[in-house]
Amino acid sequence: MFILEAGKNHLGQVKKADKLLNFFLKSDFKKMTFMCQTKKWYQAKKESYKLPNSFYQKALFLANKKNKNIGLSVCDLNTYNDLKHLNFKFYKLLSIAINNYELIDELKKRNKTIYISTGYNASDKKIKNCLKKFRNYKKKVLLHTPMVDDFKKLDLKKIVIFKKKYKIDVGYSNHFNDSSIFKILSAYNPKVVMLYIKPSRTKGIKYPDDKHALFLDQLFKTKKNYYSYSNHQKF
Length: 235
Known about the structure:
Radius of gyration: 17 Å
Number of domains: 1
Strand content: 15-25%
Helix content: 25-40%
Number of helices: 9
Structural class: alpha/beta
Number of strands: 9
CATH architecture: Alpha-Beta Barrel
Shape: globular
Order of helices and strands: EHEHHEHEHEHEHEHEEH
Low-confidence stretches: none
CATH superfamily: Aldolase class I
């Protein structure tokens, strides 16, 4: 299953966020996330990247009518608290918060599926400590999240290693800048594949996840490439 990620690629503009949302609603993708950053990060950006709560309310309402799920990627208790009254269908715990136990405890109260990213500085020790907090929590998926530019460092075999080591479902969150990776990714049989997306090719605009995010018109080819290899040998 693919999960689309808007990240911060809406640039805090409702019009761009609407474009991503409307694409999702009309597509055959079933899940999509938006991201909230730390309070300090928003203050540094003078709130310019922050979407209004009314947008999330609208997105959740429209997705629910289509039997689709909107999730929230989180890393900070303060900004999570601003949105926790909204009925997001799942959550992604960003890797910078992998040992943020206060936030983890709050997310667990929601009793929704939580995707746990292992990106920035998520050592084996940090992953192990995080999963201890989730010991009796069944609705969890670990995400192999390599943030590298070198194909050789993607280390996709970790998807299989994590499954065996932690006895847990493991997915893949893409931060690699070459979409050809999806031709072999399916051989590792990730539980989910999370893809960052960006709204449009506009001269002079650089998106926060520009290198690894896909334009909307690239998604179906990417999905086709993935599934065309899905019957190949599994690792």
